[in-house]
Design a protein that fits this description.
Helices cover 72% and strands 4% of the residues. It is mainly α. The chain folds into two domains: 182 residues, Tetratricopeptide repeat domain (Serine Threonine Protein Phosphatase 5, Tetratricopeptide repeat, Alpha Horseshoe); 51 residues, no CATH class. It has a two-stranded antiparallel sheet with strand order 1-2. α3 packs antiparallel against α5. Keywords: Membrane, TPR repeat, Transmembrane, Transmembrane helix.
Length: 273
């Protein structure tokens, strides 16, 4: 531990900086949970080495194993391996000071990938809160790296944080993240689709409460609210007609009433014949 003292005119404050403290795993886990994660790692034969290069190599291996678990829909196993990888990358301040520049760069590169995976894993597990936290930490780590033209992971982290915020019904913040991701990856259809969904949720959240007040200063409040809903419905149908992707849906909407009317008559005609 490093002890420092700040002198003030009236009093002095002692600051204690624990250079051996590890923070990454505790970003997501309480103390008891940390111990459970580490115990599970040892039971699976993963015990963290002391040498930096070995730790980095093993962390990369754990990330790969976590990806395999994720592909097999074993989100629990994927999460555990991602957390174990975090433990391997959890260098104390004292150890970080002894690393070479290449080791620090490699460590942050692996860390960003692990956090990106972890954000997605938490999403699949329905844990939007920790998904946002993983993306936050990944984006903070990215800021410490030199600026590059490759914005893949920044876009991924923004997208996953946006989706997680949407799950938490924080639609305005989600839309901001998704738009930032779209700027970085303008051709990504999944991001564009998420933006459309987010806009729709914002529109619904804003539009529905207005109906409560529509017509309260007229003689026909129910009619006014129904009329407003009808106008929004036609507006929505118009937006669907513009996008060729939604053309089959639009055709089904208009064809359904016709089918409902014709099918009974056709069946009656068949019986009579």
């Amino acid at each position: 531990k490093v002890v420092g003292r700040i002198t003030h005119s009236l009093m002095s404050t002692v600051l204690i900086n624990d250079v051996d403290e590890e923070k990454l795993l505790r970003h997501f886990c309480l103390e008891a949970e940390c111990q459970a994660v580490l115990t599970a790692a040892k039971e699976e034969g993963f015990e963290r080495p002391e040498e930096t290069d070995e730790r980095l190599a093993d962390a990369a291996k754990l990330r790969t194993l976590g990806n395999e678990k994720f592909q097999a829909n074993d989100y629990e196993g994927a999460m555990m391996r991602a957390l174990w990888a975090l433990h391997y990358l959890d260098f104390s301040q004292a150890k970080s000071c002894l690393q070479t520049s290449d080791q620090k760069q490699n460590s942050m590169d692996i860390l960003i990938r692990v956090l990106s995976n972890l954000s997605l894993i938490f999403l699949r597990r329905g844990d939007a809160y920790n998904s946002v936290r993983a993306a936050d930490l990944g984006l903070e780590t990215l800021k410490r790296l030199p600026t590059t033209e490759d914005t893949t992971f920044q876009a991924k982290l923004l997208f996953r944080r946006g989706v997680a915020r949407g799950d938490r019904k924080e639609f305005e913040a989600a839309l901001q993240d998704l738009r930032e991701a779209a700027k970085l990856q303008p051709s990504d259809r999944e991001i564009r689709r998420a933006i459309d969904n987010c806009k729709e949720r914002i529109r619904l959240d804003r539009g529905a409460p207005d109906d409560v007040w529509r017509g309260h200063f007229t003689d026909m409040p129910v009619t006014s609210a129904a009329s407003a809903r009808c106008r929004r419905c036609w507006k929505r149908l118009g937006s669907l007609a513009v996008d060729p992707q939604h053309l089959p849906t639009l055709m089904m909407i208009f064809a359904l009433p016709i089918l409902v009317t014709l099918v009974p008559r056709i069946l009656q005609f068949v019986r009579q014949s």
